[in-house]
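note to self: dont lose this again. the chain is below, predicted strucutre after it. 66 aa total, dont forget to put it in the shared folder this time
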Amino acid sequence: MSKKDSGDRFHAREERQKDYQKQLPGEDEPELPPPVEPIHSDQKAGRNDPCVCGSGKKYKKCCGKE
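---
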């Protein structure tokens, strides 16, 4: 490995770190809103009811296939 290659690797790493820092929220940016609580239903979906995910399939053919 030559000296030039090691310098290129260093600069490439430095660029990746700068790009990563751009993705992080800064101190001057507004805070994120609080998380939304999920909606829970007391009733479970029956096997022949439409699926709760909204796919249009029956629950037993979609999310209840476990």
